[in-house]
Amino acid sequence: MMDERISKYIKYGALIAVFILISACTPVGGSCQYLDSAEIVQLRKLANPAEVQTENGEVFEIDPARLVPTAQVGQYFQLKLRRITNGSCTPIVISSLRPYDS
Q1: Number of domains in the chain
Q2: CB 79 within 8 A of CB 52
Q3: Mind listing the pLDDT tens digit for each residue in 40-81?
């Protein structure tokens, strides 16, 4: 009787483990797709995090280490980013930030 119970628990435990492994391998929301864009932004705050703002008022926080050492508030940069269009990955990925020469 006791052996049957133990065997039953082992079977249920194995079934649960298989379920967890299968669900862990399936990405949530499927594969992600992004739209690449480039925007001119202005440095609004030089702190940690630094802030840049697009012409339409959208604000992005960035790591100050991504800025050139001579960066100054008011300076313009070209921001290249990827915005998610499908899936459940990181919504916005900043790929580069370079000083903008008009």
Answers
A1: 1
A2: yes
A3: 999 999 999 999 999 999 999 999 999 999 999 999 999 999
Contact partners, residue 36, CB within 8 Å, separation at least 6: 80, 81, 82, 95
pTM for this model (two decimals)? 0.66
Greater confidence (20 vs 31) lies with 31
* Domain range enclosing 57: 33-99
Q: What is the largest CA-CA distance in the chain?
A: 83
Residue 23 lies in a domain: no
Partners of residue 94 on adjacent β-strands? 81
* Residue 6 within any structural domain of the chain: no
Task: Pull the structure tokens for residue 42.
Answer: 């202005």
